Amino acid sequence: MELNDKQIQILETAEKLFSENGFDGASVRQIAKAAEVNIAMISYYFGSKEKLLESLFLYRMSDFKMQLESVISKNTSYIETLDAIIALIVKRVHRNRRTHKIINFEYSNSCRQIDFESYLEQKKENLKVIETFVKNGQKEGVFIKNVNINLLTPTILGTYFHFYYNKKYYKTLLNLEDDNSIEQYVHNELTHHIQNTVKALLTYDK
Hints:
Helices cover 75% and strands 0% of the residues. It is an all-alpha fold. InterPro entries: DNA-bd_HTH_TetR-type_CS, Homeodomain-like_sf, HTH-type_TetR-like_transc_reg, HTH_TetR, Tet_transcr_reg_TetR-rel_C_sf.
């Protein structure tokens, strides 16, 4: 998905406003003002607010498959590669958490006329990459065969989002003093916990 600097500026501004105010609470006029562009430019590039949101989803997912394949292609062990995949997923979802918040809300809104087809196709393609990696690991005897591959990503994302959406509680519980402390915790302790959890699921044979 190739975008120019002005399109990216509009998308990132829309992401911030959609996340803070909701899709209905952020008008094209507000987005244009915050992005320092005119309304006509948003209409020219995206057509409508719904198409703008669809473009935002694709923009945030556009290079994920390529990054996954790059991690998997490196000459490392299956366990090391698995750790790298999980670290990549956590890093990306943390960086793009605003978009994920919007997606989770809008996808569950049956009244919204937003086309999620391209977004869902990309998700399926990403899952295929992970599925192929795990199945190859199973053939090599590294991973057990009795595991639900489709639920690995929800395990990763569910753990992350439970932590992040309850960060006020965890700041007190874990003595995290500020946002920087949370950043460090996400990329270290939380990531390591998720890595250990998924490795246990893939290697523990009852």
